């Protein structure tokens, strides 16, 4: 399979070199070949996909940002006319309508192609607690895939689909992302609808997404987020990391530790201030999902079914859920009050200038080893994830290199939920991750070009880049040495001005094009705009659109928005909203 990202798949559709039907047929065939990997519960088939293909109208390709893009869905999320099992055959029912998140994706042109395997009732972080088989790791079959969103992460890791929906209550959208080398984004609680999702722990549940690029995660968030979070002007400059020695485990423990130390050094090299903090408050929250009364909430969601069908429940799952019967009301309220204190502490520490970074997991195991000691090994995997939803944080798990035998290593970035929109861009700049991984820098016949205005995707002059066969590489930020102005032109265009004081980071798009293409683009630039050298947040110098300082009469300073697209959205420009990046 081709490891498609959303932009390069859409590019193939527009060029006519590929069709959604061809892509879906290839997924069906490859999924059959990988049947023994236990990725799917409802295997993709052309029969169930056909109605979605028939609904595609090529005239809508440019208006639907996910036109013809296939995606996988964890089997505790409803797809209309498909069974929802939550990995429990006795629980299965046929959904009458899509879950809200699935409906929104379908409205934007996406194609749900099948239901993926999971740890039963989304209880577990290992990927082996399912009567539908143990999901194999995308990189090494003998290793655990992580859970509970195991099948969704592996479907993306194996290149079957560009993105897949999971859920995340205590780490299920992040642990499998790290173990399969993909991006896992978990929004703030309530930002994405959980209507049509089988609850695990209802007050903490989130739908999550796995992607192959940061840009794709950002796009899905924009399409699914229904809880306005406001706009954060301050970009983090401080990266908080644990002070105390971390817990590393499994056969690759030392390699994971070394990868973490390399990552912290790399973040410091990007100019971020690395500051150590006490991990004890996070540890306290980490113990609450299974040692505290929140296990009682899991029992409240599914306990009646467990009581009626004791033989239909995975033994480890039943043991964990049944412990929720013991919680006392007084314990519940004490825990709630303590949690509010911890949340206030976290907001003071992870303030608007800071972001928290932890290893996503401290190691990994083979499926054989986890099978022998399932509960203890599961707890180790959740060491740096369990606290997240309880503390009302948003998080993104991102790849950060490899360790021995090509096994992926990853870290997770956390911020309070209301600041979720800084996660993707901060991950891109602090870890030097391209928003898409298919852009090549430094080739003799290619140059990287940064654009900040109407040449951005979905805006009025983007066709010029497409005509020059430029390739989109992702969003980036400038170094904090620029101001952005809205010029008095038609259509309105921004002017990027460098200044040594009072500058801020400005969002731009990075494109790759031929040297000849750059010459043609430069020839079209009109005063007071010019092509010049632009310093990015990671220290690179690239060619891009700038503005002649002092020659911007009647211009409006829009630097506070952080970028031109965001300014258009804030001023209510419907054409910008309707042209969501595709």
Describe this structure in words.
The structure is a single chain. The relative contact order is 0.11. α8 links the parallel β9 and β10. The chain contains 21 helices and 21 strands. The protein has an eleven-stranded mixed sheet with strand order 1-5-2-6-8-7-12-13-11-9-10, with helices on both faces. A five-stranded mixed sheet has the order 15-18-14-20-19. A three-stranded antiparallel sheet has the order 17-16-21, with no helix packed on it. It has two domains: 6-235 and 354-430, Amidase signature (AS) enzymes (Alpha-Beta Complex), CATH 3.90.1300; 446-578, Gamma-glutamyl cyclotransferase-like (Hypothetical upf0131 protein ytfp, Roll). By secondary structure, it is of the alpha+beta class. The two termini are 22 Å apart. α2 packs antiparallel against α3 and α7 packs antiparallel against α17. Residues 60-413 form the Amidase domain.
């Amino acid at each position: 399979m081709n490891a498609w990202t959303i932009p390069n798949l859409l590019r193939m559709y527009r060029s006519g070199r590929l069709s959604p039907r061809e892509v879906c047929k290839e997924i069906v065939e490859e999924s059959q070949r990988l049947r023994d990997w236990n990725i799917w519960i409802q295997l993709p088939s052309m029969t169930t996909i056909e109605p979605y293909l028939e609904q595609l109208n090529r005239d809508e390709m440019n208006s639907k940002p996910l036109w013809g893009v296939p995606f996988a869905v964890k089997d505790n999320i409803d797809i209309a006319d498909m069974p929802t099992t939550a990995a429990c055959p006795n629980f299965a029912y046929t959904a009458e309508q899509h879950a809200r998140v699935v409906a929104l994706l379908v409205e934007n042109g996406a194609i749900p192609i099948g239901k993926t395997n999971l740890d039963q009732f989304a209880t577990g972080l290992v990927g082996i607690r399912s009567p539908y088989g143990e999901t194999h790791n995308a990189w090494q079959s003998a290793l655990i895939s992580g859970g509970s969103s195991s099948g969704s992460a592996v479907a993306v890791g194996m290149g079957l689909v560009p993105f897949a929906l999971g859920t995340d209550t205590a780490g299920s959208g992040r642990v499998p992302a790290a173990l399969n080398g993909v991006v896992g984004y978990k929004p703030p609680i309530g930002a994405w609808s959980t209507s049509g999702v089988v609850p695990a722990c209802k007050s903490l549940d989130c739908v999550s997404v796995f992607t192959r690029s940061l840009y794709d995660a950002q796009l899905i968030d924009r399409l699914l987020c229904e809880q306005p979070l406001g706009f954060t002007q301050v970009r983090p400059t401080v990266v908080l990391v644990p002070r105390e020695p971390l817990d590393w485990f499994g056969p690759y423990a030392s390699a994971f530790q070394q990868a973490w130390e390399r990552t912290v050094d790399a973040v410091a090299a990007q100019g971020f201030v690395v500051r150590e903090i006490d991990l004890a408050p996070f540890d306290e929250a980490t113990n609450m999902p299974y040692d505290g009364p929140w296990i009682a909430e899991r029992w409240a969601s599914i306990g009646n079914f467990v009581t009626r069908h004791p033989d239909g429940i995975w033994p480890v799952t039943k043991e964990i859920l049944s412990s929720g019967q013991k919680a006392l009301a007084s314990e519940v309220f004490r825990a709630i009050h303590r949690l509010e204190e911890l949340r206030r502490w976290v907001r003071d520490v992870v303030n608007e200038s800071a972001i928290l970074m932890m290893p996503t997991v401290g190691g990994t195991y083979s499926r054989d080893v986890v099978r022998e000691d399932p509960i203890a090994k599961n707890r180790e995997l959740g060491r740096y994830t369990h606290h997240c939803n309880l503390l009302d944080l948003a998080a993104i798990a991102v790849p950060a290199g490899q360790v021995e035998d090509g096994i992926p290593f990853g870290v997770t970035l956390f911020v309070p939920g209301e600041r979720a929109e800084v996660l993707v861009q901060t991950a891109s700049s602090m870890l030097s991750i391209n928003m898409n991984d298919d852009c090549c820098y430094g080739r003799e016949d290619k140059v990287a070009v940064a654009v900040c205005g109407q040449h951005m995707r979905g805006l009025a002059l983007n066709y010029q880049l497409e005509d020059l066969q430029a390739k989109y590489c992702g969003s980036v930020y400038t170094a904090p040495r620029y101001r952005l102005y809205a010029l008095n032109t038609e259509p309105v265009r921004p002017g990027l001005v460098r200044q040594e004081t009072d500058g801020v980071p400005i969002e731009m798009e990075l494109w790759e094009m031929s040297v000849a293409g750059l010459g043609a683009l430069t020839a079209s630039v009109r005063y007071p705009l010019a092509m010049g050298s632009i310093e990015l947040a990671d220290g690179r110098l690239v060619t891009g659109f700038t503005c002649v300082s002092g020659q911007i009469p009647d211009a409006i300073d829009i630097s506070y928005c952080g970028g031109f697209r965001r300014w258009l959205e804030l001023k209510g420009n419907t054409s910008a909203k309707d042209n969501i990046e595709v």
